Amino acid sequence: MSEIVRDARRETQGTGSGRAIARPGLEWISAYTTAALGEISLDLRDNVNLWGAPPSALQVVRETSATELVSYPAVSATRLTETLAAHLGVRADEVVTGCGSDDLIDACFRAVAAPGERVAHAEPSFSMVPRFARLNGLEPVGVPLRADGAADIDGLLATGARIIYLCSPNNPTGTITPEAEIRRCIAEAPGIVVVDEAYAEFALTRDWRAEAPGMEKVLVLRTFSKAWGLAGLRVGVGVGSRALIDAVVRSRGPYKVNALADRAATVALEQDAEWMRETATAAVESRIRLEALVAGRRGVRRWPSRANFVFWQVEGDAVAIAARFAAQGIGVRAFRGLPGIGDAIRIGVAPWPMLERLAPVIAEVWP
Ligand SMILES: *Cc1c(COP(=O)(O)O)cnc(C)c1O
């Protein structure tokens, strides 16, 4: 058990004879932290856009006025909602925005499932999902990925869960679930399906979001944190049927997208789509070159990533391997003991001149 979990349990036990301060169940949830890695000069742990931020968004942030800071923003990011709806050809009340797509996963879980119900997800998948499930009194159920890296739709359906969470391309493996399989899942699911497309801009899969409102029980999520280069502003968006969007909006609460984020994400969408496409293309090129560095090496197996990161299943201790990168000032993510996979590392990509630094470390770790 980690320090953090132990501390959380001590807090929960309270001091006197009365009940604990935190509600029952919270003792198993630690505060989310990111590991400190010492002197990191190249951080490849978060899959953000290391080519930079959209120029138009940066301009908006630089030109902010006192009024914009003094006033409350729109309750539900009107500018961004309407612009995105127009881009996609859906109605504004079929779009929801949030403080990152994390916020929308959280709000959606709370909006559609009653405490005690289940959330089924692939294993491994986005680590925030079991966390948000538990925070909302729900039971997360992991279903191993198929050997080809796609979600096991039959396995997920067999759980009978109120919510099925699908992530494509999947974090941390980068693998996709074919659109036909996702559609079958939505058609056959007894409840709601959340499709997290945080990395769709890199995979160049077909954008089917305009059809989501007509499917009634699906919420399709995207984020401005990855390809759009705005993780610091915290903006996520979802598309779905009016009834589902309404439930998520009510469960989410107001003012989750701040005034600067609303305006910056909107101008980025309007003016920097081409910038986004160019940097996403460069990210895919960097990923292919990075993958080539381990081709044919023993002790490391590449998963077929379609995202802006690589996922390498490794022999030996992933934490020790990550430490060897860290010793050279490079931050990579280590995963230990993943079900059906074992140890693995995930490395986000960057402009190639930065990534070249990895070549000697790779040659040393997997000679
Ligand atoms: C990074 C990521 C997100 C985005 O989270 P934000 O809260 O929008 O920053 C969502 N889902 C997955 C799978 C991710 O990897």
Summarize it.
This protein is an alpha/beta fold and 367 residues long. It is built from 16 helices and 13 strands. Pyridoxal-5'-phosphate binds next to helix 5.
Features:
single chain; Aspartate Aminotransferase, domain 2; 16 helices; globular; 40% helix; alpha/beta; binds pyridoxal-5'-phosphate; 4-stranded antiparallel sheet; disordered N terminus
Question: How would you characterize the overall build of this protein?
Answer:
- The protein has 367 residues and is α/β, with parallel strands linked by helices.
- The protein has three domains: 1-30, no CATH class; 32-52 and 275-365, Aspartate Aminotransferase, domain 1, CATH 3.90.1150; 56-271, Aspartate Aminotransferase, domain 2, CATH 3.40.640.10.
- The chain is built from 16 helices and 13 strands.
- The chain has a seven-stranded mixed sheet with strand order 2-8-7-6-5-3-4, sandwiched between helices. It has a four-stranded antiparallel sheet with strand order 9-10-13-12. It has a two-stranded parallel ribbon with strand order 1-11.
- Helix 8 (179-188) links the parallel strand 5 (163-167) and strand 6.
- The protein is globular and about 55 Å long.
- The structure holds pyridoxal-5'-phosphate (PLP).
- Pyridoxal-5'-phosphate is lined by residues 100-102, 126, 167, 171, 196, 198, 223, 225-226, 231, 236.
